[in-house]
Specification:
The chain is an alpha/beta fold and 228 residues long. The protein folds into two domains: 107 residues, Nucleotidyltransferase, domain 5 (2-Layer Sandwich), CATH 3.30.420.40; 85 residues, Nucleotidyltransferase, domain 5, CATH 3.30.420.40. It is 29% helix and 28% strand. The chain has five helices and ten strands.
């Protein structure tokens, strides 16, 4: 199905935007964690200008809804809501853990992987994915938990990715099948787009009110850093 999509991914240290147009994906990214809000709109403008299209040409906006950095996914949600409202564009919501697995599939050729992201306070965001028709599909449920409480049977999962590498020893003790941890910590908008295309084909949109961050927690814990 021909479509024109914009994707925003700011759930980790790397922030990226991408546009799918005429069957190809163009992407811009930055590795400045505290500059996401300053980067997104100019990057979008630059991509669209290069492609010779505008926001009014978009068929949908796809955003990585989390879990991940509280601030980062709030920025992505707010940007998506604002652009969608002002240009009357549908919204597609994609899991950041799924996007990380999709990035691992594209960059590393992995067909099954555990996405494990640091959730702070000695917890991780966790999800297991397997490739089906070039898309990484969730097996079971995404959770937030202590590394030693990861609930899934991961007997066929040998590789993990993500910033949860901080808890590598605890995770591998819990999941004995995991033999390695690839040095990939961030998902990219390129892969948010890939997952978004499949959602677009199913017309699986969310309302502006539903385009909100996903924390996988009933309560979000904020910790003030010294001097802030």
């Amino acid at each position: 199905m021909a479509c024109c999509l914009l994707a925003i991914e700011s759930s980790g240290d790397v922030c990226s935007v991408a546009v799918y147009f005429n069957g190809s994906i163009s992407q811009e990214l930055t590795q400045q964690p505290r500059k996401h809000s300053e980067f997104i709109l100019p990057a979008i403008d630059g991509l669209l200008s290069t492609l010779g299209i505008g926001l009014g040409d978009l068929d949908a906006i796809v955003f990585a809804c989390g879990p991940g950095s509280f601030t980062g996914i709030r920025i992505a949600a707010a940007m998506t809501q604002g652009l969608a409202l002002s240009h009357n564009v549908p919204i597609i919501s994609v899991s950041s853990l799924a996007a990380l697995a999709q990035t691992a599939h594209r960059k590393l050729g992995l067909v099954q992987v555990a996405s494990c992201v640091d959730a702070r306070i000695n917890e991780v965001y966790w999800g297991v994915y397997k490739e089906e028709n070039q898309l990484m599909v969730l097996q079971g449920t995404e959770v937030v938990c202590r590394p030693e409480d990861i609930p899934f049977d991961t007997s066929n999962i040998e590789i993990a990715v993500g910033s949860g590498v901080l808890y590598k020893s605890q995770v591998m003790d819990r999941c004995s099948s995991i033999k390695g941890w690839e040095s990939l910590e961030n998902s990219e908008a390129h892969d948010v787009i890939t997952l978004g295309i499949a959602q677009f084909e199913q017309q699986n949109f969310v309302s502006v009110e539903q385009a909100v961050p996903v924390y996988l927690r009933d309560k979000v814990t904020w910790k003030k850093l010294p001097g802030r």
